[in-house]
Amino acid sequence: MKNILFKLLIVVSWIYGLGYILFDFSNDTFVMRAITGVMSLVFSCSLLFFLLKIIDNKKQKKGG
How far is C-alpha 37 from the chain's CA centre? Predict the structure, then answer.
């Protein structure tokens, strides 16, 4: 159950992050700025983890 919720949070943050980049959601209130900050943090960390995972898989295939 926790794994499903974590993956759902990542998917929602990806949708929110890409929407923010493409359509520039407004940040008029403190709450919206806080939500944007948290979603951007989750988006960035999951993107970094995804890219590092790809690099690790390529190194394992090359080495073995």
Answer: 11
The answer to whether 43 touches 19, Cβ cutoff 8 Å, is no
pLDDT digits (tens, 9 = 90+) for 32-44: 888 888 888 888 8
Looking up tokens 């690790």, which residue turns up? 56
Q: Which pair of structure tokens corresponds to residue 57?
A: 């898989």
Whole-angstrom distance, CA of residue 28 vs CA of residue 6: 28
Alpha-carbon separation of residue 57 from 7, 14, 43 (angstroms) = 21, 22, 21
Helix (H) or strand (E) holding 59: helix 30-63
What type of residue sits at position 9? L
pLDDT at 11 (0 to 100): 87
CB–CB of 27/33 below 8 Å?
Answer: yes
